[in-house]
Write a structure and sequence with these properties.
It is a single chain. Helix 7 crosses helix 8 and helix 11 packs antiparallel against helix 12. The protein is α+β, with helices and mostly antiparallel strands and 962 residues long. Strand 27, helix 16 and strand 28 form a beta-alpha-beta unit. It is 48% helix and 19% strand. It is flat, with a radius of gyration of 57 Å. 27% of the residues are buried.
Length: 962
């Protein structure tokens, strides 16, 4: 044990002292490593950029040399007739010799015939007449004047690697003249580029610069390899990235297999990869040396800390081991064992005293637990209250060293405590005690459930103990209330001649709840037996009532079955309602299509005929056509109103919010309605429209609301004026439309916003309308988060107030409006092109077909099909430039036709435009998603249709040209 605690303390002292030290050392090591990495990385990147700059400067200098030399040669060159193209060859040769003498880094400079590839003039006389037609500078001689260069290559003529810079030499100044020769300069790389690359200044002893071509062939001499250039391939990750066009720095293994830090990049002009590297070992050599020194210091400090930790552990463990011996004696049963009071640290002395107090408390606790245990042994087997009282009182007197005791039972009727049993008390004096006397003597134990103590007892007390010396008064009396159902059921009184110890009080405090619980349980048992007898009698009565309950249960079951049948009927009705709603939506969609189909012909043809007024139509006939077109438009508005109301009621109305100026909308509506108002002699006034703030809402719905309300005001006003006033604040915008018209009766104000409701609904009414305008306006305003109020007096006028939130339709951040993107597809390969474009028209309705023909006219060749199958066959056989197709076709509908067209390689690129009267929500998206390239809604607008056709024809022409 002693060895264990000393070892543990020593271990933890060493661990706690060494952990921060090792942590600090490790952090310092990592910081040094990271610092060196960052410093060396920046250094290598700077050297890399400097080297690349030197290479680019070197290349540019060579280009400038060649360009300058070629310019001087052009002054010496002229045409001399057939066969010989270079004149003054001696002057040109002398110029080349002077140049190579002044520029020692060139091995040879010569001029090649551009036609034959023979060397005409060279600084090496033995090379003149050699054929260089297989050389790269001969194959790639340019038509311009820029200087080009070859990649580094191995020359068999000189037996080493080299590279050439070349430029054409023109017969006279200017690139437009003929080329008389190609000036070629061959470089001595050893004394120029390679010596520049071998300079490892700033890279230590292991630093090296390497360049490689696009195939990672090393082009320069290497510091640690005897292989000549162009024979070694560098597969390091740094060189792979460099020749791929990347720039960066990385740790990798070089061509020797040693770990290096390499900064890499590339030279764009000739696709060279360049890397600057230095051995990892040399970079971190200073760090390694510093860490060795730090490690030696750490080892010495660790040894010192170990000695200190062992000393401290031994000093701290000594008093703890002494206390361990005392605890071993206490565990063996010697409760008198105590720690000696030595002079230790304050904490150890406090721990020693606490240990002694704990031992004393443990001894006291054992006495208390023993007393409580003996009393519980008396109470738990008890089955009757009379037997329990005698045994319990005897054991309490024994456990508390009392000289006497008495048990009193409270009589609720007599309001007094009746003596039940006692020991050591003068029995002739203890009878029944009044409640007031007990309260005065015992401190009113009935007022609470706590144990009460009475000291300084008078000599004339009724509680006296019989002894051989006579009757003696006690020094202290304890009163223990016996509780039952939160009320006092009895009192146990104990008396002592010397007073009670703490152990005695603790015994009574711990056993007190158990006494009350046992008494309550025994009383409850008595009540339970009494209730059991009563329950037996009641069970007999309940049996007679069971039959009645069974009958009632059967009745409830019948009611539940009926309720279930009602629920099933409600579910069936709910399904019918849902089916009716779906059928209603389908009906409205089909109705819109069926109504729009004839309207398409009426409106389009009437507009076509009106446009042909100059062809000799009778003026009266033109007026008839205008009436037809106008009334067809009114019928279309009625259909649109019914569809809008259906969309709003079904919750399918789509809102498209955007920033809008209400003032501009009012101005537009005013311009539209002023001619109508002036014809009636009514003044239309719009005020404060220019001060309207910009709000975020649906423009179409706002226009519809204001058009209906202001239009109604003009319609129902025969004289006077219609005034539109606009007011706004930070949250709302208010538009008040007041007129001097016929007014609305008070009993009709509640119904004007109901669908199909009109103030004058008779067949002889003066004003036309369906009664949907105000209904759509109110429901649209509510969808936008606003409302509409109305005030009216018959014969005086009406005022409608539209209230709209300024930001009620703000889009969520990141939300984008739907955008239909048109895609232009390429024409089928090999398709025959005609000067006159052809259109395939697929329409089953003869009137609609005549309408299409009338709108298109003779501008295009027309191919006509009356059903989907024949239209598909004509599209495959005739390959038209554009297809106009109805959706509802007999046999095969338009969607099936377009799917077959887009799956056929011959027809998949022909633009297909849908012509349809479907106008329900989602029809456009569904039709475009099925494969159609565009969508034109019926009734057809001639201008819209022709613009769409011309736009797609133009796209096909542009694709064909490309």
């Amino acid at each position: 044990m002693r060895k264990s605690i000393r070892t543990t303390l020593s271990f933890w002292f060493i661990l706690v002292s060494l952990t921060p030290m090792l942590a600090v050392g490790y952090i310092g090591y990592r910081q040094r490593i990271d610092g060196v990495k960052i410093r060396e990385s920046e250094k290598l990147k700077a050297i890399r950029d400097f080297k690349v700059g030197q290479i680019n400067s070197w290349i540019q200098e060579r280009k400038n040399d060649v360009k300058h030399l070629s310019t001087e040669l052009e002054a010496c060159i002229a045409h001399s007739g057939a066969g010989e193209r270079l004149v003054h060859r001696a002057s040109a040769g002398s110029l080349l010799q002077r140049f190579i003498k002044n520029h020692t880094l060139y091995d040879e400079i010569f001029i090649v015939d551009p036609k034959t590839g023979d060397i005409l003039i060279s600084t090496v006389k033995t090379a003149e007449g050699l054929n260089k037609s297989e050389s790269p500078y001969y194959e790639k001689h340019p038509a311009g004047v820029d200087v080009l260069m070859t990649d580094i290559y191995y020359s068999k003529a000189i037996g080493r690697t080299t590279m050439c810079f070349f430029r054409p030499v023109f017969h006279s100044n200017g690139p437009g003249q003929s080329v008389s020769g190609i000036l070629v300069s061959r470089i001595d790389l050893e004394t120029s580029l390679f010596s520049l690359l071998l300079d490892n200044t700033g890279m230590g002893t292991t630093g090296e610069t390497v360049i490689a071509d696009s195939k990672r062939k090393v082009l320069c001499r290497l510091k640690y390899s005897s292989q000549p250039p162009m024979t070694l391939e560098d597969d390091s990750i740094a060189m792979v990235n460099a020749v791929s066009g990347e720039t960066g720095i990385v740790q990798c293994n070089d061509y020797r297999g040693k770990k290096v830090m390499a900064a890499y990049t590339h030279v764009p002009g000739n696709q060279w990869g360049v890397l600057v590297k230095q051995d990892y070992r040399e970079i971190f050599a200073p760090v390694k040396k510093a860490m060795i020194e730090i490690s030696i210091v750490l080892v010495l400090m660790i040894a010192i800390f170990i000695v200190i930790a062992i000393f401290l552990a031994r000093e701290i463990a000594r008093p703890i081991l002494d206390m361990t011996k005392v605890s071993e004696r206490i565990m063996a049963g010697d409760l008198s064992a105590r720690n000696s009071e030595r002079r230790h640290s304050i904490e150890i002395d406090f721990l020693s005293r606490s240990f002694n107090e704990m031992t004393k408390s443990l001894t006291s606790g054992m006495i208390v637990q023993q007393g409580v245990s003996e009393i519980n042994k008396i109470m738990l087997p008890a089955s009757k209250l009379e037997n329990l009282r005698d045994k319990l009182l005897k054991k309490l007197i024994q456990a508390t060293d009392s000289i006497m005791g008495a048990y009193f039972i409270y009589d609720v009727i007599k309001k007094c405590y009746i003596h039940s049993t006692s020991f050591g008390v003068a029995g002739e004096r203890v009878k029944s005690l009044p409640e007031s006397l007990v309260n005065s003597l015992f401190g009113d134990p009935s007022s609470a459930s706590a144990i009460h103590s009475i000291r300084n007892i008078p000599d004339n007390t009724v509680f006296t103990a019989k002894t051989f010396a006579g009757n003696l008064a006690p020094k202290e009396i304890l009163s223990i209330p016996v509780m039952h159902e939160s009320k006092v059921a009895g009192i146990i009184s104990l008396a002592s001649l010397t007073g009670y110890q703490d152990e005695h009080r603790k015994i009574l405090e711990q056993i007190h709840p158990s006494i009350s619980a046992v008494v309550s349980n025994l009383k409850a048992d008595e009540k339970t037996k009494k209730y059991a007898r009563r329950l037996e009698h009641q069970n007999m009565e309940l049996e007679s009532q069971t039959c009645e309950l069974e009958a009632q249960a059967q009745s409830l079951k019948d009611m539940a079955d009926a309720l279930r049948e009602q629920n099933e009927m409600l579910e069936i009705q709910q399904k019918k309602v849902e089916t009716a709603d779906r059928l209603k939506t389908e009906f409205l969609s089909n109705m819109s299509h069926e109504l729009r189909t004839p309207l398409n012909s009426i409106l389009t043809l009437s507009r076509v005929l009106i446009g042909k007024n100059s062809d000799g139509f009778d003026p009266a006939d033109v007026e008839y056509l205008k009436i037809i077109h106008r009334n067809g438009g009114l019928l279309l508005e009625l259909i649109n109103d019914i569809l809008d109301l259906s969309k709003i009621e079904s919750g399918k109305m789509e809102l498209k919010p955007e920033a809008l100026s209400v003032g501009s909308v009012l101005s537009t509506i005013g311009e539209r309605l002023k001619p109508i108002a002036e014809q009636k002699g009514v003044e239309l006034i719009i005020r404060d429209a220019e001060n309207a703030p910009e709000i975020v809402t649906d423009p179409m719905r706002i226009n519809q609301i204001l058009q209906n309300i202001i239009g109604n005001a003009v319609k129902f006003t025969e004289k006077g004026s219609v005034t539109v006033r606009l007011e706004s604040d930070s949250e709302w915008i208010h538009i008040r439309v007041s007129d001097t018209g016929i007014g609305i009766p008070e009993d009709a104000l509640t119904s004007i916003f109901e669908a199909f409701s009109q103030v004058d609904g008779s067949s002889s009414r003066n004003h036309e309308g369906t009664g949907l305008g105000l209904t759509i306006a109110l429901k649209s305003a509510e969808m936008l988060g606003g409302s509409i109020d109305v005030e009216s007096r018959p014969g005086v006028g009406t005022a409608f107030s539209v209230h709209l939130p300024v930001n009620g339709m703000t889009k969520k951040r990141g939300e984008q409006s739907e955008t239909h993107v048109e895609t232009v597809k390429p024409l089928p390969p090999g398709a025959e092109r005609h000067y006159r474009k052809s259109l395939l028209l697929i329409e089953d309705n003869p009137d609609n077909m005549e309408t299409l023909i009338a709108v298109i006219g003779d501008r295009y060749d027309r191919i006509i099909a009356a059903d989907g199958m024949s239209g598909l066959d004509l599209a495959v056989s005739r390959l038209p430039d554009l297809i106009l197709m109805d959706i509802s076709l007999p046999g095969m509908d338009g969607i099936s036709v377009v799917k077959h067209l887009k799956s056929n390689p011959k027809t998949k690129n022909i633009p297909a435009i849908a012509l349809t009267a479907f106008a329900m929500k989602g029809d456009r998206e569904r039709i475009l998603a099925s494969g159609f390239d565009d969508y034109v809604a019926k009734p057809l607008d001639p201008d819209t249709l022709m613009n769409t056709i011309e736009r797609w024809i133009k796209k096909t022409e542009q694709r064909f040209m490309v």
